[in-house]
Amino acid sequence: MEKLTHFKDAPLIIWILRILLLISVIMVIIIKISSYLSEPRVIAQSVNLRTNPNPQSKIINQIPHNTRIKVIQKDNTTKWWYIKDGKQKGWIAAWLLKNEDYNSKKASNISEATIVLDPGHGGNDSGTLSQDGKMEKTYTLPVAKKVLQLIKAQNSRVIISRTSDQSVSLGARTRLSNQNHANVFISFHFNSSEIDEGDNGYEVFKDHDNANRLANQLDSGFSDLPLNNRGVDIGNYYVLRENTQPAVLIEMGFMNNPSDFEHIKSNDYQQKVADDVEQSLQKYFK
Predict the structure, then answer these.
(1) Residue 26 neighbours by CB distance under 10 Å
(2) Helices and strands (H, E) in the chain, number of each type
(3) Burial (0-12, 13-18, 19+ Cβ within 10 Å), 100
(4) Is the pLDDT of residue 164 over 60?
(5) What positions does the domain SH3b occupy (predicted)?
(6) What is the pLDDT of residues 97-109, one digit of tens each?
(7) Angle at 128 between CA 187 and CA 216, to 5 degrees
(8) Of 3.60.15.10, 3.40.630.40, 3.30.70.1230, 1.10.3720.10, which CATH number belongs to 103-284?
């Protein structure tokens, strides 16, 4: 009688074991997926895998946008990480990865925000030139200063990379943003084309995904400017590429296009750009 009972119970035990095995397999899969999704991913268009934790060291490979990587070691002093990408190991700049460690603290409104304004060029760097030799650096500064005054009135913490005709390195400009954990970094520039009068209009550039919403908000805010809208594009500029924070570079017209330049040099146009930036930031931080 006992043997018969044991025989009848055997299929039930087998099914229980099978269910437990299935649950174990599912748990392993979930753990692996969770581990994969927690790995940092590349937010730049591509990043260089290097032999040492500095931008001068030899490039081993380029890792494309959205690739997830396995972190082996973190150097929180230099903010470079030793990582594994497939079979290759090397160092990568951590600020070019999407990871909670390097997200800026969100501001719920503009008065809580830290905003870095960067008037392009200055000092011995004139920037591009108009057809009659006027320098780009002369016009980026007053636009940034107008934005500065408007945003200061909102009680925001505003930092500007230069306040006069002085030379400021690209690294110093970028560090202002990274070290102050800026919620927004905006670099002000004017464009030029290879052929005079060849191109016209304004454009917003970004490099990392964390600047998508900011770039689109500014592009929308500029819709009332009297110049052609060239839209939002990817810009592989140092101040964007090496920035850990949401960063954009705006080109507010073409210096070597006489029609654009008439607007560029006018106080009314500069003020309109500043007003649009301030209003766009108001909406961005809502």
Answers:
(1) 10
(2) 7, 13
(3) exposed
(4) yes
(5) 37-101
(6) 765 444 455 777 8
(7) 35
(8) 3.40.630.40
The pLDDT of residue 255 is 97
Q: Does domain 41-101 have CATH number 2.30.30.40?
A: yes
**Residue 201 backbone zone (phi > 0: left; psi -120 to 50: alpha; other: beta):** left
Specify the pLDDT at position 1: 45
Q: What is the mean pLDDT of residues 119-128?
A: 97
Q: How many CA atoms lie within 13 A of 262 on its CB side?
A: 5
Q: Is pLDDT of 34 > 70? A: no
- DSSP code per residue over 158-221: EEES-SSS----HHHHHHHHHHTT-SEEEEEEEE--SSTTS---EEEEE-SGGGHHHHHHHHHH
What's the one-letter identity of residue 282?
Q
